[in-house]
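BUG: 3D viewer hangs when loading the predicted structure for this chain

Environment: internal workstation, default settings.
Expected: structure renders.
Actual: progress bar stalls at 90%.

Input used:
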Amino acid sequence: MFIGWDFLVGFPCAFPLTFLALRADLKRQRIGIVAGGTLLEFAAFFWSWQGFFLWQNMNHGG
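Structure tokens produced before the viewer hung:
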């Protein structure tokens, strides 16, 4: 069941980029900047979660 909680690692990693994307949206910046920030934020969330999962499996033998 430990795999079910690994996604929580992504939230602190993605927070700074989420804040920047929200700030760009509130300042009514171009849609490309907002969309790019949102895409980077999701990538940081997803890949930090996957990286933690892989690191955890390599260090604990499977």
